[in-house]
Fold each of these.
Amino acid sequence: MINTTIRQNWTVSEVDQLFAMPFMDLLFQAQSIHRANFPLNEVQVSTLLSIKTGACPEDCKYCPQSARYDTGLEKEQLMEVAKLIKAAKEAKATGSTRFCMGAAWKNPKQRDMPYLLEMIKEVKSLGLESCMTLGMLDSGQAEQLSQAGLDYYNHNLDTSPEYYDKIITTRNYQDRLDTLENVRNAGMKVCSGGIVGLGEAGSDRSGLLVQLANMPKQPESVPINKLVKVKGTPLDSVEDLDDFDFIRTIAVARILMPQSHVRLSAGREDMSEQTQALCFMAGANSIFYGCKLLTTANPDENSDMRLFKKLGINKEAINQSPFEVEQRVDAAIVRFSEKGELFYDATSKA
């Protein structure tokens, strides 16, 4: 009998032991826990759009959007609401159920809030779940986003507390935890995970997952990113993480957080179908869908659907109450039309 009780008192040594299990035993345990908590062969599909690209003042060593590194990335201003609506419609038409909006900020300014709130309302009017990642939030900003209807807020911990200052120095670990607390207190759901392949030790991967699992309430969504090395960033030549270590990270995340959606995020473009299949076996049940994740490549929708067909996987649907459906219909009546081109190559200098 698989024990699926949620624990929030994991230790790093316990999690190290999980990572050390024989690979097949680890996957079997993770898949058994997954089956006890989620419908079989369903994957939640999200689209991620950059609504403000580049010129970020942070020094995250993995990020091409940092103003401190010369990666050839052209900065972009905050996207117009009409263009965002077009993107959201296209995402819904291709099968996404959650629309995630990312801005390269340390934190949003108050002058940006009216535009962000309008974006949330428009995305919700289409019947999509909404998520934003805007950097750090104070309690007032979190409350504004929540009142506008934002479902999820993404703020990753990135790595373990012990390895954190090797990757980022412009904000500390507690800053990230404070933002997540503000999100929770405002009534939003938490999307928080990290990046592996940063040159960290195995114990740092354990430490990251312990931090996430031991939160007062575990994140509803846990994105696990595999580093995408971008020329010009300090980590552009770090040693590649072995695929088996990545799959193990997915499996351990599933064991520690039985009821969270565990998402395959950045790095999927370079994964074989077989690696992705093992990740789903290990308990991953969410992906980002579409040709780009902010500024890095991602498998296109057609290749994902071909893989889903091979594996017998279905896309997860949104569960909406009758009140939410009525709200969506009412909002659709007052939607305004959009003009202009939306998609651009955020890495191009042209």
Amino acid sequence: MDWQLPSDSVPSAFVTEALSQTLRGTPPVTGAWRDGDHLGSRRFAQTGPLETETGENIAHVRIAYEMFGELNADRSNAVLVFHALTGDSHVTGPAGPGHPTGGWWSGIVGPGLAVDTERWAVIVPNIVGGCQGSTGPATVAPNGHEWGSRFPYLTIRDQIQPIRTLADELGIERFHAVIGGSMGGMHALEWALYSPEATARLGLIATTAVTSADQLGVNSVQLEAINIDPSFHGGDYYDEDEGPYRGLALARRMALLNYRSATELNERFERSWQGKRSPLGDHGRFAVESYLDFHGNKFTRRFDANSYLALVHAMNSHDVSRGRGSLHEVLASLTMPTIVVGIDSDRLFPLDQQQFLAAHITGLISADAQPAVVSSPFGHDGFLIESEPVGAEIRRLLEHDA
């Protein structure tokens, strides 16, 4: 759960009145990528039917993905990267047609960077249930209408199944590394448990083995913010004149408070006013309020409310021990070389969750069974912003003998 875009994840800054004016007007009913929109760098794979853990079925699943770099002859240089909650396949590269924003990990993935695209072929799928080209609530179902409220409940385990088919289509038997941060780390963990033979190395960044009660509670109020928006219409809003942008923006504002650290927000904004009008009875606003409002409003222009619900529900399902045995035993079964990275100021995925992973994963690349800790004032979003220390750990993983 993180901002996912460099324009959003840079250090918190005051929102000028001129900047606020750029988001005037009602947002679209959905910010999802739709068929007929510019393809950008997307590629597509038809991965067939998906039967979910709850017994529901999606007859035909499409996965949108991007590839950065070229596969070598034996496909041994493939690196699989999973995005976080509101990310997509555009991990690196500039904004342009089909991609209104630049890549969300452009400081990590690219020529000469930690994940060097002149050496590695980096494959980044948009997870099923998302809204940037893969099958999700905003895509058209077999009956010719958007899935909307009919879209099945998905778990993290459900979401990795089509990626196995994508790998087969690309001729990849074993990924040199599988890496994910935040929700993407959940997918990376489940992938490694589901396909250990296809995972030579594993990178887990600012993530957890089990979604905690605290995280479930934080998620619940975001879900409710969308559900109670009068324009939500139970999830069937695509033919309406107005979508549930107020609820989606509010959910995003709630989330942002957990993506950043209290220290950063306090030091950046203090009790500053937005403009000249006082927030103490004169209908003015504090600067931090305007900051949250601006980024919530901005988010509605690139995301879909139903996808937000589907992805948060999937996060809530996350428990690698479910149906497998004790948590200790499940994590101990991961014997491939593994890094675990935590952010010291992370209050969404606190450091103790990475410490637990590190203490129990057999293949951890560490002499003291501890995660690599990145010191950052930026909270959870530090894994997006702190490119140098995070990149150094990923480079260490990629160079490690498997």
Amino acid sequence: MASITQNIDGKKVKVTGRVFTWSNTISFSRILVAFPVVYLHYQNDFQFNTTILAFIIYGAFSDYLDGYIARKTNTISELGKMIDPIADKLCALVLFIYTVWIGWIPLWFLVLAIVRDVLIMMGSYYIKKKYDKVAMAIMSGKISVNVLALYWISVFFFPESQNTHLFLMACSVTLMVISWIDYFNRYRLIMRGAEFN
């Protein structure tokens, strides 16, 4: 049954308990994108082709499409709020592990990203445990994910552009820290009783 709540940003959204929605299906499909990308890239001697490009474009586009459909069809759900960021993180994890393995991205960067995500997920778990609902992603987190994706894309498609890699890596690290602080502050407010979707 749908319920109307107000989050700490003052926005009201309808959140449902539905499971089988188009937006949830799209979010789930994004988890599967990384595996053919890695397989095809490795089999193609570390070169990308149109099939790999198509998978990556779908992965990026689906990240916007699922949320758009959920909002337009009033099917924002508790499951969707959970599966969307998990799909992002799992897809990114596979792609980054691969690029670290082939030596294109430093290991410390991957470790930093994993530690940040684990801390955020721990906070989300405690919020879910206390309030029996999932807190939505915040804007700085979404921006961080997009810049992270740009960094990976620059490394994957333009491996010789070292200056661009360093710039986007620095931006990613900065935004990961900023967004983690935002999530931590949001977590404190919610645990103190602030309303949220």
